[in-house]
Amino acid sequence: MGSPVAFACLLLALSALGGQRPVSGGCSGRCCRGRDLSCLTTGWRMDRTYGTCYCDEGCARTRDCCFDYFTECPAQDCAVGAWSYWSGCAEACRPSVRVRVRHVERRPSNSGEPCPGLEQRSGCREYRDREGGRCGLNSGPAFITSMEFGKARPKHDSYGNPLDPGFCVEFTLESRTPHCTVENRPHTHWMRYIAEGFKVCVACEPPAMHNNSGSCQGDGLESEKEALLHWQAVGNHQCSGTWKKIRRTQRCTCPPQHSFVFI
Fold first, then answer.
1. CB 142 within 8 A of CB 217
2. Do residues 217 and 147 touch, judged by C-beta distance below 8 A?
3. What is the pLDDT of residues 192-218, one digit of tens each?
């Protein structure tokens, strides 16, 4: 059968040789977006018949394109720019979300690939208020997020001195709410791996680590080993549950999907 492009080339060659029916019509200067029934002409079609043919994006699905549609109206995929820097947290001194965006540089055309997502969200928590003062850190549940968030944390202070590397606490997950698996947004996918009975590792690092106590909120270091402690996922306030402390270690050794950071 051959490709549509090869067929178009064949028709042009036949026209040059003086074929019975000249190659007329065609999509030159006629490319239209979407399904546009007014975007038509009379000429050879890709199904090798002569008659009304179309030059709109929908003709590829209805198989009534003019013979030169794919050469005159090539597909253009969507093109997007780079991600912006992450925004600050939406709210200070409490678990919240941060956002980054990217913009469309070229819209798709002629059945090109559609644009991907233009916004990403992630759970976060800031430790200074809008005036720059240190937030009060009250006792309460452990706020956690994925280990990926911790990779972006600074490792040195403003003078270039290394920060305390912190430590890791291992827990056995006892319970979780159903909302941890119901959410289907990109910044909540990590919550699907929170499951009862698994051991998880949670890193306590600056700035979540309290300067005066060297601990993180909800790390359970001062609790009895069998105490039932509470945690909450940052980015979905309905994803929460309980766990029991196993031990404190120098570094986290759990699989990535079961490794988190205190916020």
1. yes
2. no
3. 889 899 999 999 998 888 766 788 888
